[in-house]
Design brief:
The protein contains 10 helices and 12 strands. It is an alpha/beta fold. A hairpin with a 4-residue loop joins β2 and β3.
């Protein structure tokens, strides 16, 4: 049986048409665009069972009274596990904020999270660059040099220390020797990715999941953030996995629960 899974968070909405044999990725859009598309395709969507999750799920349920709202925490864990074919992992979903969920034998547990996420980048981007378009910010960050705005461990003590290499960040934006937009963007992306990756590693360590850290959500697909997530987790001794179609994890997890 095919089921529509919709994950509607604080900023973006993802939808899939899920069956055990195949997943069709319907769309990943900003909420305003997604809600309009859902209204236009309401008749088509109504022909399937619908599972909803995320902070804006109740708005969509008004269009589909028959839809079922399911646990976002369970959706994150189940969806991340399905995308990676893992039975046991820490699933880190980076959306507007970030949630961390462990899964083992289909049982999920909410370990916590952080307010750092896409909303953080959007806020800083609006403040500094007068735009919330993260695609534009990403292009700036790709050619910027974070070392011009961040203090590294090498800057302070001349070398690495313990398990931390000389190139690691000692203080985000602590140098700020450049007001170049590209360097500022690179520093902001690094601050977000390193902070989330470090929190994720030490959360995973408590559950012996250091080699099974799965990053999902739309922000995790960002090229700059993806690279820093992987590098930071590796620095601490873990392994970061960012699956293809990572932004759809929660929508898939929702459909799987229906």
């Amino acid at each position: 049986m095919k089921i529509i899974g919709i994950d509607s968070g604080g900023t973006n909405t993802q939808a899939v048409l899920f069956s055990p044999a195949k997943t069709e990725y319907l769309f990943s859009l900003k909420n305003s665009e997604a809600f309009q598309l859902i209204k236009e395709r309401a008749l088509e969507f109504s022909s399937y069972p619908i599972a909803l999750t995320g902070g804006e799920a109740r708005k969509i349920k008004k269009l589909f009274p028959q839809a079922e709202i399911v646990s976002e925490i369970s959706s994150i864990g189940i969806g991340g596990a399905l995308l990676t074919n893992k039975k046991k992992a820490l699933i880190v979903n980076i959306g507007t904020g970030t949630a961390m969920v462990s899964i083992e034998k289909n049982k999920t547990a909410h370990l916590g999270g952080t307010g750092l996420g896409g909303g953080t980048l959007g806020g800083f981007s609006q403040l500094i660059f007068k735009s919330r378009e993260l695609d534009k910010l990403e292009k700036l960050a790709q050619t910027g040099k974070r070392e011009k705005v961040d203090l590294t461990v090498k800057d302070i003590i001349g070398s690495g220390i313990g398990r931390v290499p000389a190139s690691a960040t000692a203080s985000d934006l602590g140098k700020l020797a450049s007001n170049n937009q590209k360097d500022l963007a690179a520093g902001l992306f690094n601050m977000l990715a390193e902070s989330i990756a470090t929190l994720a590693f030490f959360a995973a360590q408590n559950y012996r999941l250091e080699k099974d850290i799965v990053f999902c959500g739309k922000v995790a697909q960002n090229k700059v953030i993806k690279k820093r997530l992987q590098e930071t987790v590796k620095m601490w001794g873990g392994k970061a996995i960012i699956p293809f179609r990572a932004e759809y994890a929660c929508a898939i997890g929702a459909a799987k629960q229906r």
